[in-house]
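Researcher: Let's do a round of design. I'm pasting the structure tokens now; please hold your answer until I've finished.
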């Protein structure tokens, strides 16, 4: 699912570039207003808030896990001056387990954040499609400028 977000991003860039280069400034302003409208919809903002909260929570959990692991390692390594070879070995084994737990927690947090982000991207894409369809139907209903093809106006004479 992670690749899907990257693909959607690249497709969005490509579509934006093509539309921007072909349509000119006026069309760009229309597209920008439509995009701002989609961005400001409650569904998209709710998704943004969800991802922000989720990421902040996971970063906090991860930092707590790392801090606990470091404290445990330092405590085990400096327990006493008379530490034996087996005590040092046990401390190293414990530190290795804590690093594994931390790495697992980090992977889990990243996977969960990626999954939540994919859901938000899907919701935003649906909202954008809906807004684009609405804008397209509104553009069809709006009167368009038509060039006058017919007889040319007579030139002004000096007589």
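Researcher: That's everything. Go ahead.
Model: Designed sequence:
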């Amino acid at each position: 699912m992670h690749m899907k977000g990257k693909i959607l991003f690249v497709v969005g860039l490509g579509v934006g570039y093509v539309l921007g280069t072909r349509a000119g400034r006026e069309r760009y302003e229309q597209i920008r207003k439509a995009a701002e409208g989609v961005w400001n919809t409650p569904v998209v903002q709710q998704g943004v808030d969800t991802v922000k909260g989720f990421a902040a929570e996971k970063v906090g959990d991860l930092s707590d896990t790392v801090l606990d692991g470091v404290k445990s390692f330092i405590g085990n390594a400096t327990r006493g001056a008379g530490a034996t070879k087996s005590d040092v070995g046990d401390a190293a084994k414990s530190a290795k387990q804590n690093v594994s737990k931390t790495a697992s927690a980090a992977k889990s947090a990243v996977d969960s954040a990626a999954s939540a982000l994919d859901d938000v991207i899907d919701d935003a894409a649906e909202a954008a499609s809906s807004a684009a369809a609405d804008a397209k139907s509104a553009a069809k209903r709006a009167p368009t400028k038509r060039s006058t093809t017919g007889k040319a106006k007579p030139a002004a004479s000096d007589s």
